Amino acid sequence: MRRTTRTLAAVAFTLVSCGSPVMPASTPTRDSISLRLYATSATIPLLQDLTTRYAQTHPEISFTPVTGTQTNLLEQINTRKEGYLLTNHLPSGSVGQPLLAWPIGQDGIAVITNPANPVRGLPTDQLRRIFLGHIANWQEVGGPDLPITVFSREDGSGTRAEFEEQLIGERLTTRAAIIVPGSAAMIASTAQTAGSIGYVSMSYLDGSVIPLAVDGVLPTTAAVSRNEYPLRATLFVVGTTEPDGAYRDFIGWAQSAEGQSVVSQHYGRLSP
């Protein structure tokens, strides 16, 4: 399928306002307002956290969540002209429906490995050479004599696009990489495969895999919030139109101190 490209403008201002499939955060009432929110794999926990907390103080608001790859979700938004997307990657391109974006937090793209691997950190240069296929054995980076199994995300993944853009630029991830469909699959595949390495949104770290320190820094919420972890991605709400009404209130709340306390459960806060 041919990809649709779009122009995107990142709007960095704070709006004014008074966490498989995702279930709606609240049950609609007779006078409820339903907000349609799209979430990439990396932002499913963010969608769950924000909508659950918001519904506690806004019982009149219900949510219709839709998940999938970023490419497919952007196509839906462009077709329906309704709702907003939570993503950790801004798509590039100059053809088609222009997009607007509002920052609500920061994601750390965690580089993960199997728990049995004694390697606990890598400099950026070695990490780049692994994903390019130039380093193929852990022994070359101070580990055991064990082949490196590289896992990567599927085409259309926002996390893959952001990771490759930051780490390897215009070059291609090694063709030996095994493609996995989604963040949960990345965690499971890495946890079950000796010698594995992959990457995932920090929100999915659950103890079954080991996050590697990159340039000596681990992907913690504090390190991401302080702009210390190198593989950071801004979390955005993306749409084709300026939000108004209930959508504007929700996005503004996500940028507020209360909303940021929710974001920081699994991600980094907006930079001060």
Please tell me about this protein's structure.
Helix 7 crosses helix 8 (257-263). Residues 1-30 have low confidence and may be disordered. Helix 1 links the parallel strand 2 (33-39) and strand 3. The chain folds into 2 domains: 8-105 and 233-263, 3-Layer(aba) Sandwich (D-Maltodextrin-Binding Protein, domain 2); 107-225, 3-Layer(aba) Sandwich (D-Maltodextrin-Binding Protein, domain 2). The chain is α/β, with parallel strands linked by helices and 272 residues long. The longest helix has 14 residues, at 44-57. It has helices at residues 44-57, 70-80, 124-132, 158-167, 183-192, 221-225, 245-255, 257-263; strands spanning 8-10, 33-39, 61-67, 84-87, 99-113, 121-122, 149-153, 178-180, 196-201, 210-211, 213-214, 232-239. The termini are far apart. The strands form 2 sheets. Strands 1, 2, 3, 4, 5, 7, 8, 9, 10 and 12 form a 10-stranded mixed beta sheet that branches. It has a two-stranded parallel ribbon with strand order 6-11. It is elongated and about 65 Å long.
